[in-house]
Design brief:
Blueprint lengths: L12 H13 L2 E7 L5 E7 L1 E3 L2 E7 L3 H8 L2 E8 L6 E11 L3 H13 L15 E15 L8 E5 L5 E4 L11
Antiparallel strand pairs: 1-2, 1-5, 3-4, 4-7, 5-6, 6-7, 7-8, 8-9
């Protein structure tokens, strides 16, 4: 266990690269939000990654947006295994609306520079849509490629460092 005045050990670079590779490889994610009546709602949306931050667009009149304005916590699942070894991510995130014009422009530039914008509808500049940013607090890597095929759990620090979490010792109450 790390001493209070020391930082936790860094995440091996290969694991961080694996996580970022999964985020870059996919463009669809399932977002689960909590409705005000307590029922979960899951839906599939396009996304674009900027490091570990995920951007996605919803309609300004969508149930997802209503849910997230009530409770900004969400769960996200990304991945698959069609033809490949199953790999994926499960993330606990906080979601916020993006209103800063420079951030919106940056996301638009990213969408159109790597070709993802063609299939990304509605586009963030479309009237009646809202750009959202999901910042992960917990990342679970599910990777069946190799001998250690169990999920690996990480806490995301404010400086974007990933710190391994031991589910047998650490508890989910670490979420703010």
């Amino acid at each position: 266990m790390a001493q209070p005045d020391t930082l936790p050990p860094p995440l091996p670079a290969a694991l961080l690269e694996r996580i970022e590779g999964i985020l870059e490889h996919h463009h669809l994610m399932t977002v689960a939000t909590l409705r005000s009546d307590g029922w979960p709602q899951a839906t599939i949306v396009n996304y674009v990654a900027d490091g570990l931050r995920l951007y996605f667009v919803v309609s300004s009149v969508s149930q997802k947006l209503v849910n997230l304005r009530h409770d900004r916590r969400a769960s996200i699942a990304i991945g698959g295994g069609s033809g490949d070894t199953p790999v994926g991510l499960s993330l606990a995130v906080h979601v916020r609306e993006v209103v800063e014009p420079n951030e919106i422009a940056s996301v638009n530039d990213r969408l159109w520079s790597d070709g993802r914008g063609v299939g990304f509808r509605p586009h963030p500049a479309t009237p009646g849509s809202v750009l959202l940013a999901a910042d992960p607090l917990i990342v679970s890597l599910i990777d069946y490629d190799g001998p250690k095929a169990w999920p690996r759990l990480f806490r995301v620090e404010p400086d974007w460092r990933l710190v391994p979490v031991d589910p047998a010792r650490d508890h989910p109450e670490i979420l703010p």
